[in-house]
Amino acid sequence: MDELDRWLDEHGITSVEIQATDLDGTFIGKTLSRGKFLGGVEQGFAFADVVFGNDLSSTPILGIPFPSWRGELADIFLRPDLGTLVVWKPGKAAVIGDFWTQDGTPVSVCPRNLLRRVDADAKQLGFTVDTAIEIEATVFEESVREARAKGYENLTPLGGTSGGAYVLAKDADWRAYLERVEERLRAIGIDWEAWNDEAAAGQIEVNVAMGGAVEVADRWARCRQVMREVAHELGRTVTFMAKWSDAWGQASHLNLSLATPDGNAFYSPDGPSDVMSRFIGGVMPAMAGTTSIALPFITSYRRLIPAEGPPTTISWGVGNKTTAVRAVVDHPKQSRIEYRVPGSDANMYLVTAAVLGAGLFGVRNELEPPTALTGMAWFRPDGEPIPASITQAASALEADKILPEALGAEFVGYWIGTRLSEWLSFHTGGGDPDAGITPWERNRYFELA
Amino acid sequence: MSGAVRIEVEADPTPLVLSLARALRESAAVPELRDLLTGLTGTVALRSQLDAQAATLLFAEGGVDIHHGVDEGVEAIPLVPYSDYALAETPDELASAVETLLNPPVPAWRDAAASFWAANQGSYGFPEGLRVVCQTEEEEIRFGEDAPAYEVHGPADALAAAFSGRGETFLFAIATGVTVVGSVAHLSAMCGAHWKVRFGV
Question: What is the DSSP string of A77-104?
Answer without folding.
Answer: EEEE-GGG-EEEETTEEEEEEEEE-TTS
